[in-house]
Each structure stands twice: as C-alpha cells, then as structure tokens.
Amino acid sequence: MIKIAPSILAADFANLERDIKKVEAAGADMIHVDVMDGHFVPNITIGYPVVKSLRKVTGLVLDVHLMIENPENYIHEFAKSGADIITVHAEATNHLHRLVQMIKDEGVKAGVSLNPATPLCMVEQVIQDIDMLLIMSVNPGFGGQKFIESVYDKLRNAKQLIDRLNPGIDLQVDGGVGEDNIGRVAGCGANVIVAGSAVFNSKDMHGTIQAMKKAECR
Ligand code: DX5
Ligand code: ZN
Question: How many beta carbons lie within 10 A of that of residue 30, not counting itself?
C-alpha cells in the first residue's frame, strides 16, 4: 500500500489550516513538514511553533523532516509540539546512533534521511533501530526540483537492506515525485511518498492523490 505524505512546503503558508483540510479530504495519509535552518540547507522555512499549531488542526500523522544542523538540540521541542515521526539527516550529526535513541526516548518514531550523494552504508548500523528510512531524490532545500535518476538504483538497494536487516520499516522517498514517476518509485520498493508540488499545484488534488496511491509498480 502506497502512503502519500503531502509536503506543506508547497502549501499556502497564510492558509495552512485550509490546505491541510484539503489534503485530508483528498486522502493524504500524513503531513510532511520540511524544517530548514539556512545552514544545513540553503533555505529557511518553519519551526516547532508551526508543528504545535498544526497538531491542533489535524489528526493525521505529522512527519517532521529536519534539515537542520545540531538536530540534537531541537528533538525534545519537536516531540513536545506533536510530531509523530522525526526524521534526521545522517549528514547532520556525528552521533547518529545517539540521536536516533534520543528521538525514541521521546516516544516518537525515528526516521533517518540520506542526501542523494550519501551512500547507503551510512545507515547500516542504525537500520535496526529506526522506523523509517528516507532517501532524498533531490538535493534538499527547495520544492519543485527534478527527480535524480540515479536514485532508482539506490532505492532498490535500500529496499534490499531493509528486507535483510529490519523488514517492515517504511521506505520513504522525497523530491520530484508525481503521477508520472510514482509507479517506478514504488516499483523500487518505496512505500511512503512525499509530494509537494505534485499535490499542491494540482487542480484536482483528490484525483492526484488517489491516482498516486493506486499507481501500478513498474
Ligand atoms: C526538499 C523537501 C521536500 C520537497 C518536496 O528539500 O524535503 O519535501 O518539499 O517537494 P516536491 O515534491 O515539489 O519535490
Ligand atoms: Zn522533505
């Protein structure tokens, strides 16, 4: 079963509640929240006050993607604000194992993400401790970028690694996924798909999300 996580980066920040209700009605499975600090990535977005406000208006899973330096300093606040899943970048910490434990100690699901240029072996030692592996299919920082083709192979290898070491955890892909390529992405083993522009720029959000959920693996 494919799960769709619309990224609110592509939503109207002046009308977040309205846009969340729209994707809820259209069948979204979770809400993907992109947190950027202007250091780890060259863009600045939102922080935990926004997560706290979103928590009040949706029952959907809040999937918080931290693209920030020193993530260890902010885990507690994001957990307290109502995040259900906190995903950190392997590149953003010297102590990934400790960071994953810190997230789990907050009673929140732990995800680990890899940038396109970071090899899969970076997560091998923590894969048994995590709930989700996020493979970036664009260089993080901006919505609306083009899916990087070499990521298909990486996804297939990530799926194999998961099946070998911790079967059942989610394999998420983020960046440049839409109706045109979701079948191929799912065919490589990804089951949680982040989609920003494909969902929010669609004239028929319901149709787009439903079509993406029903995409045939290829
Ligand atoms: C990229 C973000 C993504 C992005 C996805 O840095 O992590 O979540 O918003 O947007 P699209 O689907 O437009 O590529
Ligand atoms: Zn993201």
Answer: 20
